């Protein structure tokens, strides 16, 4: 029934033409597994080492057009972003990512290169942090959906929860703030970086949006240094510290002079007519880490104090759970998972 | 700007109106966690016990219109099916499911009752097998997407792989075959069961499609009894045994007289003009288990011999890796993940 077709490189074919098992085979081929992977992909389930008898585990889903755009990011960047987003959740517990599982939904006419590129990005980013990609699924969906689960090793440490902050603690961050939101604003303004290779500050912000780089080591080091509460910044600094404040029944006071305003960020904000503090305080997806420490703790390298913790009923902090320079932060307030109904 | 609306029950509202955190809060409320859940939902990651220092892990994605239809199944049934599909992968390793993570994508106008119903089905089905629901995500997508990851405890046993079958083994199944495919055929023929409560055989087959019931305990018992290879039947008996044959470099011979034809299945097949053997041999999603055992092994309760294993180069078994009554099985050959390109 079919006439013979010229032989094509697989990457030019669609996932429906190549088929589930072949696409998965391509994605899995050539990936090395760390020692924590006792049994990799290919059976009904994988088996991963959990040396201290516990496993930290988290899951996130990224949807095309909602969490990424394939005209703004390469498939590999999408894969790397998925690893960063999930890996940061493990780092925020003070754990080390050991294994990722990836379920990929895509339309049948998706080029194999897209599915393979996402898998490649996930594989390379996982490998770079010493984790394996041990399993997943490939199914048909209307749009590209990347659903990732990450396992982590607490290495004998207690997990650092959101609920451990105490009045008197200092609030500190590791990693950079506002850069993913700045990159998103640039992309939304039509600056995709293609014709701006010479403008390093723009290119760096675009990269920051396309592939966030969580400070994985800082999470483990914070746990070792006795961090009392920790979270990754996915919804925005104020929103995510709000989760710590709520879970710990405290209030948090941030000091913008301690956060500081990166001149490159300020310059780009001026160019696109934006408020850089909106990016820094409410921009999500940098996947920096925020933690509280006892006021006399020695903070590990890479952590900078930006505020302090006061009692939940502190009179100097009426209003919101998180104050910026003594006041409510009244801007957009962080990422919303759904469009307004 | 908004005029006040009459207060509604949350279930009548949409997920966008209620918001991500409230929907997740509803889904999590009232669920009990087993002792294996050291830290449940609500932080950046969960922490699950992995008593023997290893964790079995698997992931599957279910897409509306592809893996389920909300006019054919209730949201709770969809949730239960997602647990069965994933839990069976853990059972097929000889492990016990301990924890599920669920990432749910849905359109903003999805009724809260749909999201809550899926979560409820997942929670109840997990609870029934002693597992927790420890985390996940809720995001906006074009259609309902349910992405599940399951963790399992090998309880000190070696995982039972697909690659362990040896010539001379017997092939056995636990659980029933062809019933999910029969239920799907009935639904496709317009028999949704609504006006057929009196016809028990039809109702049972519809149930088998809507909520498969994997023989979890049979997986653990097979591992204890020394099963050499095992898989769950998700793509179809012949297709999934083909995976064992390929991984083990053997051939498998099935004997229909040993599989047997359930008279109820035969009667329903006749009614809709179908071949019941197509359902039994090529129908997926029953999530029964298939395994091979040494020929002198004592099979645990619930396992029935349906064939044997011969060498990969056996002359009596030329052609396919899996023969039925000595011949190639030339029917549809199992579930395809993508529509033909």
UniProtKB/TrEMBL annotation, chains A, B:
It catalyses: thiamine phosphate + ATP = thiamine diphosphate + ADP. Signal peptide: none annotated. Residues 42-152 form the PurM-like N-terminal domain. The keyword Electron transport does not apply. Residues 166-278 form the PurM-like C-terminal domain. ATP binds at residues 136-137, 162, 234. Substrate binds at residues 67, 285, 335. Pfam families: AIRS, AIRS_C. Mg(2+) 3 binds at residues 44, 89, 232. Gene3D superfamilies: PurM-like C-terminal domain (3.90.650.10), PurM-like, N-terminal domain (3.30.1330.10). InterPro entries: PurM-like_C_dom (IPR010918), PurM-like_C_sf (IPR036676), PurM-like_N (IPR016188), PurM-like_N_sf (IPR036921), ThiL-like (IPR006283). Mg(2+) 1 binds at residues 60, 137. The keyword Endoplasmic reticulum does not apply. Keywords: ATP-binding, Kinase, Magnesium, Metal-binding, Nucleotide-binding, Thiamine biosynthesis, Transferase. One of its GO terms (molecular function) is thiamine-phosphate kinase activity. Mg(2+) 2 binds at residues 60, 89. Catalyzes the ATP-dependent phosphorylation of thiamine-monophosphate (TMP) to form thiamine-pyrophosphate (TPP), the active form of vitamin B1. Reaction mechanism of ThiL seems to utilize a direct, inline transfer of the gamma-phosphate of ATP to TMP rather than a phosphorylated enzyme intermediate. Belongs to the thiamine-monophosphate kinase family. HAMAP family: TMP_kinase. NCBIfam families: PRK05731.1-4, thiL. This is Thiamine-monophosphate kinase. It comes from Prescottella soli. The gene is thiL.
């Amino acid at each position: 029934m079919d006439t013979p077709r010229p032989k094509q490189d697989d990457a030019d074919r669609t996932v429906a033409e190549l088929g589930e098992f072949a696409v998965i085979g391509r994605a899995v081929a050539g990936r090395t597994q760390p020692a924590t992977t006792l049994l990799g992909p290919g059976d009904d389930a994988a088996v991963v080492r959990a040396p201290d008898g516990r496993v930290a585990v988290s899951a996130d889903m990224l949807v095309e057009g909602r969490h990424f755009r394939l005209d703004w990011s390469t498939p590999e960047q999408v894969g790397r972003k998925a690893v960063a987003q999930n890996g940061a959740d493990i780092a925020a517990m003070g754990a080390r990512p050991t294994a990722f599982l990836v379920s990929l939904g895509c339309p049948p006419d998706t080029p194999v290169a897209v599915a393979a590129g996402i898998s490649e990005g996930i594989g390379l980013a996982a490998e770079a942090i010493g984790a394996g990609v041990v399993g997943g699924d490939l199914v048909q969906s209307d749009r590209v959906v990347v659903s990732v689960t990450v396992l982590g090793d607490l290495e004998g440490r207690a997990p650092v929860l959101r609920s451990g902050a105490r009045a008197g603690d200092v609030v500190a961050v590791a990693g950079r703030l506002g850069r993913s939101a700045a990159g998103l604003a640039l992309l939304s303004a039509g600056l995709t970086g293609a014709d701006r290779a010479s403008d390093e500050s723009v290119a760096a912000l675009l990269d920051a949006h396309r592939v966030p780089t969580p400070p994985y080591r800082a999470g483990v080091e914070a746990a070792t240094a006795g961090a009392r509460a920790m979270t990754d910044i996915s919804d925005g600094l104020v929103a995510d510290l709000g989760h710590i404040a709520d879970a710990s029944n405290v209030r948090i006071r941030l000091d913008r002079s301690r956060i500081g305003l990166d001149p490159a960020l300020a310059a780009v904000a001026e160019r696109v007519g934006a408020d850089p503090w909106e990016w820094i305080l409410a921009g999500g997806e940098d996947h920096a880490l925020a933690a509280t420490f006892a006021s006399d703790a020695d903070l590990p390298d890479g952590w900078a104090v930006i505020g302090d913790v006061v009692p939940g009923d502190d009179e100097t902090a009426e209003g919101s759970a998180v104050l910026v320079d003594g006041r409510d932060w009244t801007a957009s307030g962080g990422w919303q998972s759904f469009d307004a109904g």
